[in-house]
Amino acid sequence: MVDVRVIVYDGKHHSVDTRKLPSSPPAARLFMAAIREARPIVLEPIVHVENHRARCGDGDITGDLSAKRGLVSGTANGTVGTMIVRGRCRCRSWRATNRA
Asked: How high is the mean pLDDT of the chain?
C-alpha cells in the first residue's frame, strides 16, 4: 500500500506519560482491522507461477521469487529428483526478467 493517510479523532496525547513504544502494537492492530474492513483491491495483475526444477535448485527459485516481491505458496515433490515450486508474483516483475 502506498499513500496511506490516517486521521485520529478524539485521541488524547499527554507529553509526560505518552511514549511511542507502548502505543505501537495497539496502533498496528487498529490499522490492520481498518484495512480488513476497507477491503482494498490489488491494482496490478498477479501471475500464478509453477516451476518444475531439479531438487537441488529449489532454493534458488524461491529466493528469486522472493526477490521479485513474490510469495511462495507451496512446494511439492514432482517426478523422481524434481521439485515443484508454486507462488504468485507481480506481472510486471515477472515479465521484466523472464522473456523468451
From this structure: 76
How far apart are alpha carbons 62 and 98 in whole angstroms?
Answer: 15
Sorted by where each begins, the domain ranges of the chain are 46-97
Pair 88, 50: CB distance under 8 Å: no
- Above 80 in pLDDT, residue 32? yes
CATH 1.10.10.10 fits 46-97, yes or no: no
Instruction: Note the pTM of the prediction, 2 decimals.
Output: 0.49
Q: DSSP letters along 45-79, please?
A: -EEEEEEEEEGGGHHHHHHHHHHTT-EEEEEEE-S
